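Researcher: Go.
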Amino acid sequence: MDTKTIKCFLQVCQSGSLSKAAQHLYLSQQGLGALLDRLEKELNCKLFHRDSRGTRLTMEGQDFVPHAQKILEIQENCIKHVQPKQDHRLPLPVACTFGVYNAFAAQFLKGFQSQHPGVRIQMTEYPDAQCEEVLKNGGAGIGFTTSPLGSDMHVSKLM
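Model: Structure:
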């Protein structure tokens, strides 16, 4: 039993119709029906009465609804507690030419990070010409290169 199938089951319950649920889930009616058939086989019971008037829950289906909801709630809580907490620091894109990071930039950025803990450094290494283009186009706030930048480049101080 997987959570995708459980979500599908609950969508059919909410929609009251296999076709409406399939549209909402962007699945074919046959695909959704196959998922529900597998769930019924796994649970060894019929969950729905399907006829021309729509799809209605059986008694077993009604009994399963709160358990299905609880499974999804547990999954959501697990994800919340296991995933790393969202990083609210301000991003600072940094461009660096290959080799410069290990030679110089790593030490500089480590010191910068300790002085500015509210900033999250997003480091990307590039070939020399591409690094200069990224800096020219504003794709990075700071750059480290092996050669001087073009004359139209300017240096700005980060506050």
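Model: The beta strands are 48-51, 54-57, 90-97, 119-126, 142-144.
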